[in-house]
Amino acid sequence: MRCPYCNDENLKVIDSRPMDEDNAIRRRRQCESCGKRFTTFEKVETIPLMVVKKDNTREPYNRSKIEKGVLSACHKRPVSVEDINGMIDSIEAKLFQMDSREISSTDIGELVMDNLKNLDEVAYVRFSSVYREFTDVHTFMKELEKLYKKKKR
User: Fold this and answer.
1) Closest CA to 117 of 70, 62, 63, 80
2) Stated pTM of the model
């Protein structure tokens, strides 16, 4: 590492602090040549999770896509932002604990639906109707019947 001011390599660490729930370290450094101070951050580099879409194209995993779908499904429902974030955190934990660095968008959608079913049934039906591309009322009613039968047990 070099000083951003004078480009010298003689640096000393003045202070180190954990950040982001101990997933990163903030270091305050001082250049021994010019005396200027600056901050650096260290974070573990992970291999990005790739999502394999239905058309077999691949793109990097993007949390905001799940957030958008879940927020849309939960619109005007009695579901808190904390519950939504907790659910998405739980889904992400499962995704990043998998052995493979590639996951299909279908598997992600199923994970979201499984979690939404426990969070809010109306949000689940909304999400699944878009995700599974219900084409008619009959398909929609079948999904509702499955949900109703599970609830009766």
Assistant:
1) 70
2) 0.62
